[in-house]
Design a protein that fits this description.
This protein is of the alpha/beta class. It has one domain. Helix content is about 20%, strand content about 20%. It is built from two helices and four strands; from the N terminus they run H-E-E-E-E-H. It has a four-stranded mixed β-sheet with strand order 1-4-2-3. It is globular. The protein starts with a helix and ends with a helix. It binds zinc ion.
């Protein structure tokens, strides 16, 4: 996954005027693998945590609504992304 994000970042640098978008819903299932319910596509901000791996345990809510963590890479103020958000995951990690 990191490799994909990195290659997207390289292509984004070529066109700095366009807002950078990470679409994590592309070519992925719209149903939660944990709860088997339909998820909704949600626009979220990008967040550069500065670390490569997440310290949080999201095993109970893999599809909760949260910013996309881009690790050490900052994409600018107007960058955003799309994720799948599962209503059951939202309840599990409130
Ligand atoms: Zn879920």
């Amino acid at each position: 996954m990191l490799i994909i994000v990195f290659s997207l970042a390289v292509s984004a640098l070529a066109t700095p005027s366009e807002p950078f978008v990470i679409d994590q819903t592309k070519h992925t299932s719209s149903s939660c693998e944990l709860h088997h319910v339909q998820m909704s596509r949600v626009r979220v901000p990008l967040y550069a945590s500065g670390i490569a791996s997440l310290p949080h345990d999201y095993s109970r809510c893999p599809h909760g609504r949260r910013p996309i963590d881009t690790g050490c890479t900052k994409f600018g103020e107007d960058a955003y992304g799309y994720i799948w958000v599962c209503p059951e995951c939202e309840k599990a990690c409130k």
